[in-house]
Amino acid sequence: AVDAGHRAVIFDRFRGVQDVVVGEGTHFLIPWVQKPIIFDCRSRPRNIPVITGSKDLQNVNITLRILFRPVTAQLPRIFTSIGEDYDERVLPSITTEILKSVVVSAA
Predict the structure, then answer these.
(1) Domain ranges of the chain
(2) What's the CA gap between 106 and 104, in Å, rounded?
(3) What are the b/e assignments for 28-39, b being 16+ CB within 10 Å?
(4) Cβ count within 10 A of residue 83
(5) Given Cys at both, which of 20, 55, 86, 95 links 82, Cβ 3.0 to 4.6 Å?
């Protein structure tokens, strides 16, 4: 069963990760052969603190709050290339680089 606001990617032991994203509701799986990987597709907040330097060599502490959610059609690709913890692996590096460039250009 896939809860509201969630999507599932099906991993098949013989065919690998299926390209079809399964929506909310009850679905049939072949026991032992197929396994669902559930993703939360609701918008979620995340706070990311960054310490960066400005042009005049001052340290600047910034905390950025992001609302994010995955693109549901890309969930099989996200799972195979990044993993279930995509937000932990992708968001900090992206936000750090963006905030550093903003602080340098604004000062």
Answers:
(1) 6-106
(2) 6
(3) eeeeeebebbeb
(4) 11
(5) 86
Which of these, 10, 14, 5, lies nearest to 22 by C-alpha position? 10
The answer to whether residues 105 and 54 touch, using CB atoms and an 8 Å cutoff, is no
Query: How many Cα atoms occupy the beta-carbon half-sphere of 95 within 13 Å?
Result: 19
Which percentage of the chain shows pLDDT scores above 70? Answer: 99
The residues, any chain, with a CB within 8 Å of residue 106's CB and separated by 6 or more, are none
pLDDT tens for each residue of 16-51: 999 999 999 999 999 999 999 999 999 999 998 888
Rounded CA-CA distance 71/78 in Å is 9
Check: pTM over 0.70? Answer yes or no: yes
Mean pLDDT, residues 47-62 taken together: 84
Query: According to the model, what pLDDT value does residue 107 have?
Result: 58
